[in-house]
């Protein structure tokens, strides 16, 4: 089974969101006091680690698809 980096990046986004939501729920119920600024920073950091993966995907989708050899095919007048 092969795990793609896009999947890992999406999981990281979910983990970052869970950190923020769980911190908010714990604060709202009074079970713990977690500074929301710190929770937002931690959740943002988890996602920010994978921003190069997201940027690579965006660039690939904007400027072309993968060719037969795995390289990026740039768009021109012939394949636009």
């Amino acid at each position: 089974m092969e795990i793609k980096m896009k999947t890992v990046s999406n999981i990281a986004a979910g983990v970052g969101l869970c950190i923020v939501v769980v911190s908010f729920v714990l604060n709202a119920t009074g079970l713990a006091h977690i500074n929301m600024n710190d929770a937002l920073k931690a959740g943002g950091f988890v996602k920010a680690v994978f921003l190069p993966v997201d940027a690579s995907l965006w660039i690939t989708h904007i400027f072309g698809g993968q060719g037969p050899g795995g390289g990026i095919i740039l768009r021109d007048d012939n394949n636009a």
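DSSP finds three helices and no strands in the chain. Residues 5-29 form the longest helix (25 residues).
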